[in-house]
Records
---
Amino acid sequence: MFAGIDLGTSGVKTVLVDEAQRVIGDAHAALEVSRPHPGWSEQDPEAWWRAAEETLDALATRFPAEMAALSAIGLSGQMHGATLLDASDAVLRPAILWNDGRSAAECAALEERADFRGIGGNIVMPGFTAPKLEWVRAHEPEIFARVAKVLLPKDYLRLKLSGEHVSDLSDSAGTLWLDLAGRRWSPALLEATGLAEAQMPRLVEGSAPGGALRRELCARWGITGAAPVIAGGGGDNAASACGVGAVAPGTGFLSLGTSGVVFVATAGPAANPGRAVHTFCHAVPGTWHQMGVTLSATDSLNWLSEITGQSAARLAELAAVQPCSEADPLFLPYLSGERTPHNDPGARGAFTGLSRSTDTGALARAVLGGVAASLADCLDALKESGTEPALLYAVGGGARSDYWLQAIADAGQVTIALPGKGDFGAAIGAARLAICATGTSPAEVMTRPAPEREITPRAGTDWPERLARYRAAYPGVAHA
């Protein structure tokens, strides 16, 4: 038996699978985000651990025989979060999350100090971990002076599970301290933020062992025999790629979660940082990936849900009642700034073209259309870097809306496949990495599901004209 734990922004999900990758059961525990100032985003690492404990306790109660036979655990998690620990592994401050924009000023300073683009393969952006630490050094020097270890969110769970400071290469590539081609920590990039390799976790491949479960936790969850191995795991997107089988170069997926991601596996660390395309190590050996990211995908729909009192699912239904028209407003989905292609943490959302006749359905169409336009920007940026997927598997909560997927296919001129019945998210990818950590090859484990159906771009839509309107509504940014 194998478990996969996915630490998301809004909650922890844990799945239990058997040797044939059949899902035996799953459990979920919710998390909350603290936003103490505009543009800030934080969480308490202890809340992550309590949520993970809750899910594992639930599975041990519901499936005691299966948990007793657990042989490996895989980890996945939200990337980039700065979890700062002192010499006794005590948390020094709330973790600064991936969608926190406070370190914009520090990014320019870091670009001047070291070759982050050449060695790390990416522009220095506020979302990454390195500028977060530079912000702490500048604004909280007493905290910075006590930092003994910097862990990513999922690796804090690993510490609580195993007592070890370990991280995988896919997640660590998102810190901006990794030598991307060499798949190792870069002394030069660490030095640029006043840190040393001793303050970093040990690195392993995502499909390799990265610790073992503490004996007291084995007893708590009724696990008999040898302590389960904990796989290196992966950042949430790399783990999702493992879940949907996007590990061979050229394969990819579209994720419609809190953020929106276009992910494509690559054979090497090709980079195009000028358009804010991200290049990271994959969670399997000898493989990398590129991706474009829009920070507010379903988060935009959830925001509209909060202010209208309609559920996100109901808003998606209202959007599909009638097709878009020229009378519909536009929506810029930059509620938390933007990554690809703008690299602008100060960007903010906006409705334009509102009229007295605008109703809730029109607002919903505008929000879904705005995210589709942003993802088309991501696809354009990937194409400029030489990465053009022929097919993207759709995962995440937003993939339940055919209307939204069709808008993305039309705007981005890309074919989107819906996998057959089953779970193909990051928790499943983490469980697959757990299987690999016991000796099975990734090629054998990470097969692609047969598509249930495909959504192809339609000819003759108004999307070329609508994209021009969206891009004109965001002045001062170069567009393809």
---
Amino acid sequence: MRRVLTAVAALALPISLAGAPAVAASHGTSANSAVTSTQAAHTLNRPTTLVTQRPVDVCNYTASRPSLSVGSSGAAVQQAQCYMNQAIGAGLDEDGDFGPVTQSATKAFQRCAHIVVDGRIGAQTWSFLSFWANAPGAPFC
């Protein structure tokens, strides 16, 4: 009897963690436990729907993350400029023009983040910019 109840109790934890109703172990007869186990097995086969939400971004010019350097322009540059303003208080005009001022701010951000300092915005810099700009407590440097 004790083994049956232990098995039912072991099923209850994964079911409750999966978002399905938990099956409570009872001190009833083994016949009741068998019904509960069958119900638990049926519950495990039920499909679940996961709802995911994209986090709110402080800058909403674009979701595109191309490589940027001096001479680049457009919404992706505006996004990067906005991120740098949020992350390190760069004070950049969000004009979409990657000129020497944006390059200088990019290098300052890269030094602050302890990543490769090259004045270009590639995958690593985008990743750090996005994270830092959206983190509580920004600006950091």
